[in-house]
Specification:
- Helices cover 57% and strands 0% of the residues.
- The protein is mostly helical.
- The radius of gyration is 22 Å and the shape is flat.
- The relative contact order is 0.05.
Length: 96
């Protein structure tokens, strides 16, 4: 049943809450946000670029520019996993 059907029946399904969840629902958007203070747009742009680099947004966009063969994708994913594992080992070693 659709949201309107529940509304017509006078009962509300608990899964829907107060309103139907749409595509542009703010709770589902997980975008990066930068606040511009004192009209300092240049500083806000630097902060945005740093956040995008930390999130890996640009890396993902560059990777998706063209087709990646499945074998190359597996190689890349394995290399990323190895680097994550090595990073975790370094962090564990530093704790000792």
């Amino acid at each position: 049943m659709l949201y309107n059907d529940y509304k017509d029946l006078g009962e509300m399904n608990r899964d829907f809450g107060d309103k139907p969840r749409g595509r542009n629902d703010e709770s589902k958007r997980g975008g990066l946000e930068v606040i511009v203070r004192r009209n300092d747009v240049e500083k806000a742009m630097r902060i945005l670029k740093k956040k995008m680099a930390n999130e890996g947004v640009l890396r993902d966009l560059k990777r998706k520019e063209c087709y990646e063969k499945p074998s190359a994708k597996r190689r890349r994913q394995r290399a990323e996993a190895v680097s994550r594992w090595r990073k975790k080992q370094r962090q564990l070693k530093e704790e000792w």
